[in-house]
Amino acid sequence: MNKKTGQIYIVGMDGGIDSAVAAYLLKKQGHSPIGVAVTYHEDDGDFKELISPFLPDELDRIKQLCQILEIPFYATNASELYFEEVVEKTVSARLTGNSFVPNVGKVSVILKTLISKMTGLSAVKVSTGHYAKVLRNQTTGQLNVYVANDIAEDDSFYISSLSSEVLENIYFPLSELKEEEVLKISKLIPFDFKLDKKQRRLDRHNFMNSEGLAKFVEKYSATSLRKEGQVYNFFDGSTIGEHLGIHQFFRGQKKIPLKSKAQIDKELVVSRIVPANGMIFLDKESRLYFTHLYVSNFICDKNLNRSVPMIANIMLGARKQMHSCEVFFKNNGTLFIKLKEELKDFISRGAYIVLYNKIGVGARVIGGGIVRYSAFYDENEELAQYPKTKDQEDNEEDKNKQKKKDLGF
Fold it and tell me: What residues does 136 pair with on adjacent strands?
């Protein structure tokens, strides 16, 4: 691309360092950036602390930043799309005992909103402060997403959900830079940046597990959907207590909210949620693991050969460690994934995963999809989603004793 043409770029501005540097670099390259802030959540002021990690800085401050950069500034509201793509899915996930990654939806909403403004502003591309590479395969013409040069800052996990049509309109100025280089450039911009990127990132990551989310769900759901019920010990079937609503729980939860106080083994976490009858099951975290994943809604390069299994690397969350796996493609965008090693962890239905062709800088995104269930093969070579209960273990022991007896031992 000729960088001296003075072409117009829309830059999504949130008041943070990364988007400001993206605009600064575009201007230095001879382009004409226009700063656009995307707003939403205007009806959720009573949850400001909870949702603040997803919000841009104050519009007056973003406008001031654009004035310093000497670029035009506009603001646009995307509340309707954000509600549909993020709020409703967040609420639905909590009510059904599933997981969801709000930031995947947020990134999609912002980029789609900015792209919708391109024609009106005569822009050729949309840019943001994300760290990711979008490159075209010279053989197939297909656009692919790659890991950025700074792995610790890489945003390819979030960008992976975008369609080719969206990627066609995007340019990421920070894709080749390291964070220290971006911070050095930001010193050239005389602005008091206040957004704490690291803390906001951590808060977004923990959002679905935050205590305040239950009240947020109550605002956007009917009481009849927030079923009350019993909490049980999954292993021995004993009743631990009653709870006030299914929406207060998530898989892996350690702090268990009950109607009345009860002694709960500190090793127990939420292992299973049954929304139909409000049943919550707890199990020891040490008993939870998986070796296989069943994934649906998998979006990938249309030229990908899905007729044979593939060796790949799976990322279970943004910037998390990758794990080697074998991928078996099924029909209608579904996959069966076999991990090379057992993971002493848990992943909930609804979680988003991304497959890469290798580990490290320049790794290409193969595709991303939604987890339907995690599982493992037990000692009988049967696929299981949950560890055995005490009754199942006792029955297995009785069978083994009988088998030994029959064999004369």
Answer: 143
Residue with tokens 């792209």: 115
Long-range contacts of 79-88 (CB under 8 A, 24+ apart): 79/39, 79/40, 79/41, 79/42, 79/43, 81/40, 81/109, 81/112, 81/113, 82/40, 82/41, 82/106, 82/109, 83/40, 85/109, 86/54, 87/220, 88/220
Structure tokens at 316: 């279970």
Domains and CATH numbers, the chain: 8-129+173-209 (3.40.50.620), 222-286 (no CATH), 290-384 (2.40.30.10)
Residue type, 268: L
d(CA 22, CA 39): 19
Run means of pLDDT, 10 residues per run, the chain, 409 residues: 68 98 97 97 88 96 98 97 97 96 97 98 98 93 95 97 95 97 98 96 95 95 96 96 96 94 93 96 96 96 91 97 97 96 92 97 96 92 93 79 67
143-148 long-range CB contacts below 8 Å, 24 or more apart? 143/167, 143/168, 144/301, 144/364, 144/365, 145/364, 145/365, 146/362, 146/363, 146/364, 146/365, 147/356, 147/360, 147/361, 147/362, 147/363, 147/364, 148/172, 148/174, 148/175, 148/176, 148/361
Contacts of 197 (CB under 8 A, 6+ apart): 16, 17, 18
DSSP state of 364: B
Separation between Cα atoms, residue 345 and residue 285, nearest integer Å: 8
| 3-class SS of residue 374 | strand
Alpha carbon distance 372, 352 (integer Å): 10
